[in-house]
Request: fold
Amino acid sequence: MSASHAVKAATVESSPVAVVQLYDTILIHVSRAAKAARKGDFQGQFDEVMNATRIVDGLNRCLDMKEGGQVASNLREMYESISRALLRSVGKSTAGEACDKLILAVRDTRNAWAEICGMTQIPQ
Reply:
């Protein structure tokens, strides 16, 4: 599923299951970005980072700040931090490690959403 299709799917479905699926897709792209960075394929890293940030930005845009209260504010802050960290990592020698840290953070949030809707958790 492409990033744009994933964001559209979440917007249409607006369900915790769709959110978990989007987190799964983000994890795939960030993992690929880490692998590309470790190989010195910075164009490949950039492409994967852009795919991940498109999904993150789509999730951010879907937040209902009025109704979501503090949870929405916390998610917005997290999404913006993830996007910034991903974009800053491109082309750096530490990009693989930066992506690994982001994978841990995204996985934890993904697992929280998965718990809400009874989906399988990704092991630590």
